[in-house]
């Protein structure tokens, strides 16, 4: 394999990794503050993708705004609606059930995901069909021999990395981040120190869900196609990445996301005839790693919970 | 006493009405297809078309029965398909079924229909084994199979000058079947398959596979899968810089592919065992009636087959009455039946004999190849 193709595969892996990482970080945030698994997270990705498509479509088509503004309105809509979905799910389903067995929250959010998915399928005209996503980023490609990546891909990758870094800084350097970490360490003590427990939990849900919705918008820009059930497998992969990396930590899900994407890409590169098994092999690697590191690669006891 | 006299009065009022108005028995038919999920567009188009056939028949005063379509969603999933097939087949009030768009579901349910003795007519699934892989006299099919489509694909594409092929197929029976028949028919033409990528039908990201394909430099990529797979592959080809021509059989020949792939879909070739609806004598009448009925979704590529299958079933019931066994015998012997999709003739496996046709995506529509700008030389297919 020549170096250009190798570099292109590396880029594919990185791109996939940053998308998985953004979804996985959400799982880790929710688990950090409330010890819950929000299984509708993958479908929030889809909600983000469809919100941005709707807003960008209206801005670009009806109002005829230039692509940059259409993109800005698409991202703003994705983040706002994603955050709102997160707050509603957190307020209506998760907070009232927080003293119930964990499996109840898991089930309730799983069902909420189905509701979101079906609402998109039924509510969007011809919602069962894949939808084209407009190309709102600059065209053109960076070429070097057999290596060729779109400028838009590089922008998406950079935006994803910046956002993950930004989330890390928000958690570690701001008062809100401090409040999240306090609630994650001990909700009762945090309350006693005057932290508004409900606001912090809902803020975390808004943050994680907005991240997922932004990832949905990026997926649309990257693949130029979105569909109503795109979030199902992404949700599972994001969850697996978060678990293997270390549920509750910040760095863990990022490592998990890149690991999962790396294994998937490697399978296609090394064993092209077994392309169909790339998910099987990637999940098998996750199972093996979980068996070796039961609390994740970044073990909770060694890392500060978000 | 008051109640009794009221009842008598009611009976006296009802008596003069002719009893013939009330005497038309209702016969139930099952429609099964993917009504939700990524393949719901052809499923809903098929359901609407079957519904239209029933509506038109019920409006016909010459019909002996009133028909009722009971619809079931198989979600394009074999396990769900078996559940709904069992539900339909075990309901004795259902006399026949118009069944399945997805091949993976179509093949999974044949045993169920045979066991319960429910005669069905397949309206969309193209896996040959559904009719040829068994000898169940309950299973009929009005549309063609991937044998016709695969043979035509291999023949047509090599004649267009394509020599090096890559096949990307899903791992269901449908995708595997397409790979099998295309490969088989490509051998005698001298075409070469340089790589085959079996992929999961739910896979989102194809950049790794496409990067491998870019390295192999094929002339053409054949998709052995349904619309969602086709759309994703097409959308991601440009990103990786793959310039090969794209082709697929009827699984991608849907309005959903054109909508999903957008401008990038231009020039995609497809093979379908139906002729364009406008080429059929009753095609325009069907489209007018469909528009008048006010359905939300398009009939899609297989709607005319669902419509024909429903009429075929209702005509058999008109002849024999609502009796599964008797109407099955009538269906078995279908020869020279004039349907929307042309004449239906069943062979000894109750498979309609159909010729496949070539189509190309042009200006956001699937155009019959001989009528297209590509065939006329005004536009060119992709060449590596």
From TrEMBL, chain A:
One Pfam family per UniProt: BPD_transp_2
Stretches that traverse the bilayer: 14-37, 44-65, 71-93, 144-171, 199-222, 228-247, 254-274, 280-299
Family annotation (CDD domains): TM_PBP1_LivH_like
Cell location: Cell membrane
Keywords: Amino-acid transport, Cell inner membrane, Cell membrane, Membrane, Transmembrane, Transmembrane helix, Transport
Domain of life: Bacteria
Leader sequence segment: none
Membrane topology: Multi-pass membrane protein
Chief place where the protein resides: membrane
Family to which this protein belongs: Belongs to the binding-protein-dependent transport system permease family. LivHM subfamily.
Protein name: Branched-chain amino acid transport system permease protein
Species for this entry: Bradyrhizobium algeriense
Automatic annotation (TrEMBL), chain B:
Protein's UniProt keywords contain Cell membrane: no
Entries under Pfam families matching the protein: Peripla_BP_6
Signal peptide, first to last residue: 1-23
Coiled coil: none
Species in which this protein is naturally found: Bradyrhizobium algeriense
Ranges for domain Leucine-binding protein: 26-362
Family from the record: Belongs to the leucine-binding protein family.
Keywords: Signal
InterPro entries named in the record: Leu-bd, Peripla_BP_I
Protein name, entry field: Branched-chain amino acid transport system substrate-binding protein
């Amino acid at each position: 394999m020549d170096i250009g193709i190798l570099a292109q595969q590396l880029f594919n892996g990185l791109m996939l990794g940053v998308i998985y990482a953004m979804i996985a970080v959400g799982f880790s945030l929710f688990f950090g503050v409330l010890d819950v698994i929000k299984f509708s997270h993958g479908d929030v990705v889809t909600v983000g993708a469809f919100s941005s498509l709707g807003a960008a479509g209206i801005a670009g088509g009806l109002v005829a705004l230039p692509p940059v503004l259409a993109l800005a309105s698409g991202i703003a809509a994705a983040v706002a609606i994603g955050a709102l979905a997160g707050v509603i799910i957190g307020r209506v389903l998760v907070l009232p059930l927080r003293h119930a067995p964990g499996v109840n929250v898991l089930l309730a959010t799983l069902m909420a995901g189905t509701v979101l998915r079906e609402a998109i399928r039924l509510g969007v005209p011809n919602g069962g069909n894949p939808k084209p996503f407009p190309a709102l980023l600059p065209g053109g490609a960076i070429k070097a021999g057999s290596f060729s990546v779109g400028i838009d891909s590089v922008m998406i990758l950079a935006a994803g990395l910046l956002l993950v870094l930004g989330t890390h800084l928000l958690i570690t350097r701001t008062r809100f981040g401090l409040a999240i970490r306090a609630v994650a360490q001990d909700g009762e003590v945090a309350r006693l120190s005057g932290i508004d427990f409900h606001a912090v939990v809902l803020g975390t849900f808004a943050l994680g869900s907005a991240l997922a919705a932004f990832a949905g918008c990026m997926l649309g820009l990257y693949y130029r196609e979105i569909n109503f059930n795109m979030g199902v497998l992404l949700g599972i992969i994001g969850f697996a990445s978060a678990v293997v990396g270390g549920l509750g930590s910040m760095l863990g899900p990022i490592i998990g996301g890149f690991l999962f994407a790396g294994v998937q890409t490697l399978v296609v590169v090394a064993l092209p005839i077994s392309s169909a098994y790339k998910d099987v092999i990637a999940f098998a690697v996750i199972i093996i790693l979980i068996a070796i590191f039961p609390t994740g690669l970044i073990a909770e006891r060694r890392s500060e919970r978000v | 006493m008051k109640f009794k006299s009221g009842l008598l009065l009611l009976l006296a009022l009802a008596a003069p009405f002719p009893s013939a108005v009330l005497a038309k028995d209702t016969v139930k038919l099952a429609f099964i297809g993917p009504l939700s999920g990524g393949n719901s567009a052809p499923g809903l188009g098929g359901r609407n078309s079957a519904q239209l056939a029933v509506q038109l028949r019920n409006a016909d005063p010459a019909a002996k029965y009133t028909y009722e379509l009971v619809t079931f969603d198989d979600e394009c999933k074999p396990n769900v398909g078996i559940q709904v097939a069992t539900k339909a087949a075990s309901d004795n009030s259902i006399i026949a079924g118009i069944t399945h768009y997805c091949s993976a579901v179509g093949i999974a349910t044949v045993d169920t229909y045979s066991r319960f003795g429910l005669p069905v007519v397949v309206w969309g699934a193209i896996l040959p084994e559904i009719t040829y892989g068994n000898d169940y006299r309950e299973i009929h099919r009005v549309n063609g199979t991937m044998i016709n489509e695969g043979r035509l694909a291999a023949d047509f594409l090599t004649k267009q000058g394509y020599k090096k092929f890559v096949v990307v197929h899903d791992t269901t029976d449908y995708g595997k079947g397409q790979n099998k028949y295309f490969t088989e028919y490509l051998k005698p033409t001298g075409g070469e398959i340089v790589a085959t990528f079996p992929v999961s039908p739910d896979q989102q990201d194809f950049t790794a596979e496409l990067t491998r394909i870019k390295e192999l430099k094929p002339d053409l990529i054949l998709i052995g899968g349904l619309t969602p797979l086709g759309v994703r592959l097409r959308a991601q080809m440009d990103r990786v810089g793959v310039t090969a021509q794209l082709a697929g059989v009827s699984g991608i020949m849907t309005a959903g592919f054109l909508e999903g792939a957008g401008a990038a879909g231009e020039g995609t070739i497809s093979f379908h065992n139906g002729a364009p609806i406008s080429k059929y004598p009753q095609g325009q009448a069907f489209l007018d009636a469909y528009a008048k009925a006010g359905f939300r979704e398009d009939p899609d590529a297989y709607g005319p087959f669902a419509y024909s299958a429903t009429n075929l079933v209702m005509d058999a019931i008109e002849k024999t009455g609502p009796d599964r066994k008797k109407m099955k015998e009538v269906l078995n012997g279908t020869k020279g039946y004039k349907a929307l999709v042309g004449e239906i003739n069943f062979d000894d496996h109750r498979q309609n004999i159909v010729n496949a046709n070539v189509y190309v995506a042009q200006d956001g529509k699937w155009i019959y190849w001989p009528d297209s700008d590509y065939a006329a030389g005004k536009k060119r297919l992709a060449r590596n």
